[in-house]
Automatic annotation (TrEMBL):
Residues 1-21 form the signal peptide. The lineage of its organism: Bacteria, Bacillati, Cyanobacteriota, Cyanophyceae, Oscillatoriophycideae. Residues 37-257 form the Alpha-carbonic anhydrase domain. This is Carbonic anhydrase. InterPro entries: Alpha_CA_prokaryot-like (IPR041891), CA_dom (IPR001148), CA_dom_sf (IPR036398), Carbonic_anhydrase_a-class (IPR023561), Carbonic_anhydrase_a-class_CS (IPR018338), TAT_signal (IPR006311). It comes from the Bacteria. It is an enzyme of class 4 (lyase). Belongs to the alpha-carbonic anhydrase family.
Length: 258
């Protein structure tokens, strides 16, 4: 374990005679880099001021989520989805319940392959549809070789119990804990998506710091159902884990109706 105080004290000496092109404060930040800049959902408007790395949260022009209001009809190719059953590796990271997925699950967007990394939940929904929010939203996060993300988003509305989420809901850790593997539970990823492939698409950002503008958003037009009891259980762990909607600015939302 490095003693940070002695390291910082030694730094000015270490810098003397060197030709570092970056500024001293940024070097300090880099040295202290393991310190995570804490953010929360109470003050999302302040994310952009917490650290330089979160600047896009404040200055970005292609931020997410957004209100889905008016659409450009399009004849896009449907998204190709290749999902399997996976073991349940679940984590409460303090901001959401996240399920880390195994390699081998992917989608093809505009001819490009994006591998599934994880999925997680928001309460209430982050995107809204003509100003209307849903009780919850599911995000399946995929990444291509260049590091660009493609997120499949599914609205969850109150209705019947969602049996495909039952085992996951029973395993949900109520406090922040590292990943744990739940024995003998498999999650069928395909069942987490609506059967109707109609989607909206737009380009935007991560909805958590650092708010990087690297995300192809693919939002299913049809919601899935989840019971009031299931919503309540998530609510008790995360009363609010949704970023407010951001300005659409110069962007268009494409609509592909199947
Ligand atoms: Zn999300």
């Amino acid at each position: 374990m490095i003693n940070r105080r002695s390291l910082l004290k030694a730094l000015p000496l270490g810098l003397a005679g060197t030709t570092f092109s970056f500024s001293f404060p940024s070097l300090i930040a880099a040295v202290a880099g393991e310190k995570h800049h804490e953010w929360n959902y109470e003050e999302p408007h302040k994310w952009g001021e917490l650290t330089r790395e979160y600047q896009a949260c404040k200055l970005g022009q292609q931020q997410s989520p957004i209100d889905l209001e008016s659409f450009v009809a399009s004849s896009l190719q449907p998204i190709e989805i290749s999902y399997q059953q996976i073991p349940l590796r679940i984590v409460n990271n303090g901001h959401t319940i996240q399920i880390n997925t195994n390699p081998g699950n992917y989608i093809i967007v505009d001819g490009e392959k994006f591998d599934l990394l994880q999925f997680h939940f928001h309460h209430p929904s982050e995107h809204s549809l003509k100003r209307e929010t849903y009780p919850m939203e599911l995000h399946l996060v995929h990444q291509n070789k260049q590091g660009t993300l493609a997120v499949l988003a599914v609205f969850l509305k109150e209705g019947q119990e969602n049996t495909h989420l039952k085992a996951l809901w029973e395993a949900m850790p109520s406090h922040k804990i590292p990943e744990k593997l739940i024995d003998n539970v498999r999650v069928s990823l395909e069942d987490l998506l609506p059967k109707n492939p109609s989607i909206y698409r737009y380009f935007g950002s991560l909805t958590t710091p650092p708010c990087s503008e690297i995300v192809h958003w693919v939002i299913f037009q049809n919601p899935l159902e989840i019971s009031a009891t299931q919503i309540q259980k998530f609510h008790e762990i995360f009363p609010l884990n949704a970023r407010p909607t951001q300005p659409i600015n110069r962007r268009f939302i494409l609509s592909y109706i199947s």
